[in-house]
Amino acid sequence: MAIDTDTARRVAHLARIRVEQERLPALAQELSAVLAFMEQLSEVDTDGVEPMTSVTPMQLKRREDVITDGNRQDDILANAPDAREGFFAVPKVVE
């Protein structure tokens, strides 16, 4: 699939990237090369291949999943401009 300069301009706009007018043909060519590579990858037969997280087989370290409050309430509330009864105090915004 070939990308033209109008499509490259639109992609740059959607990505919020400023691209000078004279750089648009080069950008279109680069995007076309990326799409061509992706088409080439889609031709690879991956049936029966398990997904992996690393090229070296290893077990991930695991720890017991324990819920805690972090035990840092006093440290956190020390940064608050106004704290009462263990909570952040904020101005009332609803009448």
Tags for this model:
single chain; 95 residues; mainly alpha; two-stranded antiparallel sheet; 3 helices; 36% helix; Aspartyl/glutamyl-tRNA(Asn/Gln) amidotransferase subunit C; ATP-binding; Asp/Glu-ADT_sf_sub_c
How is this structure best described in words?
The protein is mostly helical and 95 residues long. It has a domain at 5-42. 36% of the residues lie in helices and 4% in strands. The chain has a two-stranded antiparallel sheet. It starts with a helix and ends in a 7-residue tail after the last strand.
Query: Rough shape?
Result: flat
- Would you tell me the structural class of the helices and strands? mainly alpha
What number is the mean pLDDT? 90
Please describe the biggest sheet, giving its number of strands, its sense, and whether it closes into a barrel. 2 strands, antiparallel
Count of individual beta strands: 2
pLDDT under 50 segments (min length 5)? none
Q: Whole-Å distance between the termini?
A: 59 Å
State the oligomer: single chain
Total helix count? 3
Radius of gyration: 27 Å
EC number: 6.3.5.-
Catalytic activity: L-glutamyl-tRNA(Gln) + L-glutamine + ATP + H2O = L-glutaminyl-tRNA(Gln) + L-glutamate + ADP + phosphate + H(+); L-aspartyl-tRNA(Asn) + L-glutamine + ATP + H2O = L-asparaginyl-tRNA(Asn) + L-glutamate + ADP + phosphate + 2 H(+)
Pfam families: GatC
InterPro entries: Asp/Glu-ADT_sf_sub_c, GatC
